[in-house]
Amino acid sequence: MADIDFERKTIHIRQSKYLKDRIVPLSNLMARGLIKYMNAEKPHNYLFNGKEADGRYSINGLSWVMREALKSTDIKKAVNLHSLRHSYATHLLEEGVNIVTVKELLGHADVTTTMIYLHVARCEVIQAHSPLDTLYKDVL
Hints:
Layout: E1 4-5, E2 10-13, E3 22-25, H1 28-41, H2 59-70, H3 81-94, H4 99-106, H5 111-114, H6 131-135
Antiparallel strand pairs: 1-2, 2-3
């Protein structure tokens, strides 16, 4: 719970994939939903309490939640927890976020790992131009 910073709109992800920590943005929409959830459920240590001895969700528990949630959708393709990470990266790239920024958000050590997501992203092709045209536009 302490890893969610509603003021700065960030979430501190601790010891996730490859045991790496990182800070990711918290959307306004998600923040509103989390506040509503927290007011209703009054969670203590963890935002979502699982059945592990320390109160966390296990990987199997999270996978079960995902499978159950998918049953109420029209999604037919194979989806798993990693699909959420993949979708996050792909959407960021499609929205024009710099690949180095996406690399940091995903916690990748090398940008070549992040480049794997480029093969499915439908990125807008931006016409190349000279930086002089934008740096000195008032002179022209």
